[in-house]
Amino acid sequence: MHAIHLGPAGFCIAVCAAAAAWSLPARASAFGHEPYVTVGGGYFGGSSRVAVGLGGVGYRFYPNPALALYVESRWMLYGGNAFTTSNGGLYVLHVRAWAPAIGLQATAVFGQQLRVLDAGNPGVPSKLSFSAQARLAPLRFERDRFTAAVLVVDLGIGIDDGRPFPAISLSIADIGVRF
Amino acid sequence: MPFVPFAAATGYPDAALDRAYAAAGSVDPARLRAHVGAMHDAHQRDVLERPAWGGSMTHTHHLSAAYVRDQLASPGYTPVVGHSDDDGLDVDNIYADIRGSSRPDEQVLLTAHHDAWWQSGADDNASGVSIVLEAARILRDTHPARTIRLVAFDREEEGLIGANRYLAAHAVEHVAMIVNMDCVGFASDEADSQRAPFGLGLRSVGNFILVVADEPAADALSRIVRLSASGPGFASAVGIITPGDSHYPVDSSFLRSDHAPFWRRGVPGLFLTDTANFRNTRYHTPSDTPDTVNFAFLEQFARLVVGAVAGYAEGD
Questions:
Q1: Which residues of A are less than 8 Å from B204 in CB distance?
Q2: Distance to chain A for B250, nearest Cα, Å
Q3: Do A122 and B229 touch (CB under 8 A)?
Q4: Nearest CA in chain B to A47
Q5: What is the spatial distance between Cα B275 and Cα B200, in angstroms, rounded to a whole number?
Q6: CA–CA distance, B218 with B92 (Å, rounded to integer)
Q7: Cα–Cα distance between B269 and B215 in angstroms, integer?
Q8: Could A80 and B249 be called an inter-chain contact, meaning their C-beta atoms sit closer than 8 Å?
């Protein structure tokens, strides 16, 4: 934004500087491992099941600063003792401390859930279901060994006995420590 | 009323299915209407009591107990009045047995509470009692494999007191399953006439039966849902399986009637309801009167319940 006030030459310089800053991490990361906690709501629901929860824990591995592979588990306690386990990968951008991320994950939902039967689907639904989600973390930050993100959104869809169901999570806070 | 059964899809053994359809076809809607009217009249004439915790609500249960007792005696049962006066609260649970022929020590309980608020209680729960009494008439000479126990609990409205006292006095090990009805007579075909607990996407039109099961009764739930879809004359059923052990937030929506103490003891059980306050705006008001009951819906509900219980009484 500041480049607008500098004229054409200044604009070009600012664009080049931004591109250089965008492509390089603010700090070349020596940290490859990161346990983290996530706090927020999760909802896996549809015509056959409902599972709602409030957060969980996870582990991220960084093979390089721009890529994070993770496994995460949430406790879905609204309707029973249910859990989700997600495996995914994130592409992480770096602009100084700002490190937004985007990625994909596969999630399994298992355990006690509210399961729904009706005339069109009278069989007892399985306690295990699967979904695929996109993860969006636009407000994610890294500083030294700490990471923090707010409003991390998972949007996706699952298939349950041949019928789709929405798989949605919103983490209010995602906090990790890298080592 | 003739049925065209889709037998193969119901999950019942053939002999059980035959009994289920025969029982369901014997429901007399005029008797259901008469029971609802008589129960309401009994509450209107009864002595008013206040709940144990105070407040302005009125509670009635003496004449309804007498009505149930007399109606069970009419077709030849010897009803048992389980009376207790613990903590200064008199409780009269009424029950009668259809003794099983081959597995008499296994009981299928068909239950509904007979007490009411505000001298009204047509939907809550004269509707449920009417089905218990109609089942008593239909199933009396059917010689089921398991014992069918028909129970009208007392003081459900004041905290499931009758059901808890029943469990204190009877061995739960004999109960193969409980089928409990509470608020089963209200239905609407209007759009958006149905609400639901948070996160649960029920149909928006309130013209179905909700059947809630604990985990041990999941297969029984599947059977009754299949039965409801197997032919004309049965009310449409939506089933939910819930943990039923009162450890989770959603349980408060489902642990609100006499099946709850049984669920907590691990007894397989079904809770059948029209969803009460999630559909009926007259719930727990003086305007819960017989003219607000949908008797066509109640008849279909009765057919499903009587048929399902007849099937359950033949075993798994």
A1: none
A2: 5
A3: yes
A4: B201
A5: 13
A6: 31
A7: 9
A8: no
Cβ atoms of residues A104 and A61 within 8 Å: no
Residue predicted with more confidence, A104 or B76: A104
pLDDT of residue B120: 95
CB contact, 8 Å: A52 with chain B?
yes
Encode chain A (179 residues) as per-residue pLDDT tens digits: 333 344 555 544 444 444 444 444 444 456 699 999 999 888 887 767 777 788 899 999 999 989 999 999 998 887 778 889 999 999 999 999 999 999 999 999 888 888 888 888 888 888 888 999 999 999 999 999 999 999 999 999 988 777 788 888 889 999 999 99
Q: Does A50 lie at the interface with B, CB-CB under 8 angstroms? A: yes
Measure A80 CA to nearest chain B CA, in Å: 6
Residue of chain A nearest B237, judged by CA positions: A118
Q: How far is B299 from chain A (nearest CA, A)?
A: 19
Residue of A nearest to B202 (CA): A47
A172 burial via Cβ count (<10 Å: 0-12, 13-18, 19+): middle
- Tell me the sheet residues that pair with B264: none
Q: How far is CA B86 from the centre of its chain?
A: 25
Q: Which ipTM was obtained for this model?
A: 0.85
Q: What is the DSSP letter of B122?
A: I
Predicted local confidence at residue B271, as pLDDT: 97
Whole-angstrom distance, CA of residue B212 vs CA of residue B6 = 23
Q: A78, B249: Cβ pair inside 8 Å?
A: yes
B182-234 per-position pLDDT tens digit:
999 999 999 999 998 776 777 889 999 999 999 999 999 999 999 999 888 89
Residues B96/B149, Cβ–Cβ less than 8 Å? yes
> Across the interface, do B226 and A118 touch by the CB < 8 Å criterion?
no
Among B248, B255, B275, B304, pick the best mutation site for testing chain A contact (most A Cβ within 10 A).
B248
CA nearest to B252 within chain A: A79
CA distance A119 to chain B (A): 6
Q: Can you read off the two tokens belonging to residue B299? A: 């008849």
| Spatial distance between the Cα atoms of B246 and A54, rounded to a whole number of angstroms | 19
